[in-house]
Amino acid sequence: MRTIMEPFRIKMTEPIKIITKEERIQKLEEAFHNVFLLDAEDCAIDLLTDSGTGAMSAQQWAALMLGDESYAGSRSWKRFRDTIKTITNIKHVFPTHQGRAAESLLAMTRIKPGDVVPNNSHFDTTRANLEVAGAKALNLLNDEGLDPTLDAPFKGNMDIAKLEACIEEHGVAKIPFCMITVTNNTGGGQPVSMANIRGVKEVLKRHGIPLIIDACRFAENSYFIHEREEGYRGKALLEIAQEIFSYADAATMSLKKDGLANIGGFFVCNDDVWAEDFKNMLILREGFPTYGGLAGRDLEAISVGLMEALDFEYQTYRHATVSYLMNKLEKKGIPVMKPGGGHAVFLDAKAFMPHIPSLAYPGIALVNALYIEGGIRAVELGSVMFGSFDEAGIEQASPLELVRLAFPRRVYTQSHFDYLAEVIEEVWNHREAYAGLKITKQPKVLRHFSCHFQPL
Ligand code: F0G
């Protein structure tokens, strides 16, 4: 059969309320044109994030009931630890309440002011946690990853020459670790090849620098390796994931993505000193090391979810949803980042809204338009999210202006995607009608979550 159908049926539903266009215009004004400030129930299709927004399986709901809520040494903790060890084979396992808690404790325990941390591309919370601790967070993405029109299999790869140059320039003493994010969320959800992870590790090993994998979407990345990299076709996704982690000295993860859970995170590491420092900070900030900010029932649901994310049928379907929307948009000539990502389709807002300069935020204009036209909530990954200021305080544009349509896992069906494609086409056909915006209020860090805009 040509149709790749959802490998599940739906046992429980949630109503979607569809408000009128006039109401949406009003709601957006009340939210200062920042879709993070909208009420979720006013969004017909919520593609703000794929984080914690997925549907759990019957097996996960059943597992919740097995949650052992003991403070220390619970059965659920042992299941969680053993599942993560099966996948990563990394010695010390610590639960955290979500990914950024793992990042924050890592930064607190391992960063000194003046340090430098390379990554293919840092996610915004990773960057913020490292920078708050005094480090400089560097993106060393391969040039391929910066060209939204280029169709290449592994646009999330780190540029190994840039990594060598970075080590040469800053010196080993200033680089406590290097990170690699799989898939590369902020660069279009693009995968990293096994060869690249191996190559990065080889360079780091020569210099004695540890490698930390930001593993949020490790299962989606494993599927891409299976499909696109020579030598992996015959392998199970679990085996591929195990190889990815075999190159890591440590990993952080938001289990709200490929943990198929609504909350959760972890930190794993092989080094005993790192583990001891992390554990002590975990007790202070998150909780005892056998629950780390999570309920026993969460640990159970995550243990099931992690293995479901490595199910080949599930990944086949998930990637098919991305391709389905990509095909529809490409047929209409709508500018998208190529190829489709693992968890999202990224519209190229610079090409979509060429009449809006970067510092009038074409991505935000597009996000606003999608909401007004169809109640779609998307997120800008451009000059607002990655905005920076030079030493003279002048705002710098981001190299890419993307709008991410992130797909919650196992939530929306084919007709939702058909509707979405129609809304995007409608906005595309009237793109000149949308104006840029200016920021009227912003916090110092992570401004995109709460800043206020005003149309120009
Ligand atoms: N690293 C990556 C690559 C992420 O995508 C995220 C979260 C985090 C770390 C932090 O994890 O949210 O559990 O604290 N990304 C979400 C997103 C929020 O929408 O892409 P968290």
UniProtKB/TrEMBL annotation:
Keyword check for Lyase: yes
Alphabetical list of NCBIfam families matching this protein: PRK13238.1
Similarity annotation: Belongs to the beta-eliminating lyase family.
Protein's name in the database: Tryptophanase
Cofactor(s) needed by this chain: pyridoxal 5'-phosphate
Domain Aromatic amino acid beta-eliminating lyase/threonine aldolase per the UniProt entry, residue ranges: 46-422
GO molecular function, one term: carbon-carbon lyase activity
Record-listed N6-(pyridoxal phosphate)lysine modification sites: K257
SUPFAM superfamilies per record: PLP-dependent transferases (SSF53383)
Keyword Lyase: yes
